[in-house]
């Protein structure tokens, strides 16, 4: 069965991925596409999905500037209905002969839109709507054949439509929660305008993903890199259902795992009937990381070493394919879209060496967000403990040690991290948290113990709330819990002199420190 889909053409907007999520929440498949796709790309997409419409995202550029990102005019004939949001709205205006200008200082934040006609995407809205805006340019003249549907005090054409051609534009952001009835606008577009069937569910994705694995690997053998996290575990179970005994799971203990983790993974995987090879490679990784302080270089080296080990294991078992648990946000942040900035190289994506001895890499979860992976995991019958497990980066504690990774630092961090986990789990706070862990600084600090001077490491505690890791808020942990954490860490780990709590949201910080 083919799913109905409404993809998003990405013009580099901060909220492009949010549009994708909103569409999926309504049971319609979506993904982000680079804005410069051509007819061939569209045909390829139509081979996989019933493409029922298209959304043009916002973006940081100005359509008035020379060289501003655009899309092929042919798209408007190939894929309709179309909804342009913010930059997308202005781009439609420009491409169809309307006028866009920079008016005053723009609108940023809450604004009030007056809806002139409550039809099309605006059906069911009130006459006056609280909306969220973020723009400097405005459409000041609608193109011929387009009807103005809404305006604000500072934006004369905040929404327009060409009903016959089924093209819609909206200046505000229906995808952000600060827009009242934003979801209704998206719902109107998907169901009233595009006529979608809500037939996509993350769990229905599982059957399709298995089919994809089977097709990609053919009759050959594959290995999967297992980290013990939800992504690779789900990918492993999925791939084993698709390939049976033709799959071998490989767990490389690089020495950067948390306390007790290698044993836990070994135990858990004995229960799923999957062949598991454990490679103990602590010294090899530590040696390779000696003297390296740059976070991207650490990721690259670890990624490369991983692949070399997988190649060795694959050779021994005659496996031709490498299966990975890469998910959608990994790809977005590693620079999936041609116009969004690369934030950091997730080691299972951009950190791969350019030459590998595999015939192919298969990533069955590459289009899913984390919470969607959790749903797939549940549908596949993975135990609760796995489904709820906090995310842990592939390069492990190596990217939670700032500066050079040494045996001593690893020992200190592993203990501090175990204390953070123990206390937050015992306090009942862990359930509401996305991640909670310790980070080891590259600086030392003075303290006093008894009557003598102490000079030791600084440990930072990071605890965040999030639903998909794309944005996160630092958790408001009660002082009494923070106090217990700092007391235990400093008392139980003599090499630590000071504990600090990270109070930065994402953005502007990332969740991990490196
Ligand atoms: P950041 O630090 O970018 O992290 O806000 C977002 C989410 O991704 C996890 N993360 C990684 N996962 N390999 C992974 O498999 C990596 O290199 C990596 N770096 C970050 C991070 O723990 C968070 O959940």
- The CATH superfamily of the largest domain turns out to be Class I glutamine amidotransferase (GATase) domain
The overall average pLDDT, rounded, is: 91
Low-pLDDT stretches: none
> Nearest-angstrom radius of gyration?
25 Å
Number of structural units classed as domains: 3
Order of the strands making up the biggest sheet: 3-2-5-6-11-10-9-7-8
CATH architectural category of the largest domain: 3-Layer(aba) Sandwich
| Major sheet | 9 strands, mixed
CATH class of the largest domain, named Alpha Beta
Written overview of the protein:
A hairpin with a 7-residue loop joins strand 9 and strand 10. The chain folds into three domains: 191 residues, 3-Layer(aba) Sandwich (Rossmann fold), CATH 3.40.50; 186 residues, 3-Layer(aba) Sandwich (Rossmann fold), CATH 3.40.50.620; 102 residues, GMP Synthetase, Chain A, domain 3. The chain has 15 helices and 20 strands. The longest helix has 23 residues. By secondary structure, the protein is of the alpha/beta class. Strands 3-2-5-6-11-10-9-7-8 form a nine-stranded mixed β-sheet, sandwiched between helices. The chain has a five-stranded parallel β-sheet with strand order 14-13-12-15-16, with helices on both faces. Strands 17, 18, 19 and 20 form a four-stranded mixed β-sheet that branches. It is 33% helix and 24% strand. The site of xanthosine-5'-monophosphate has 17 residues, from loops.
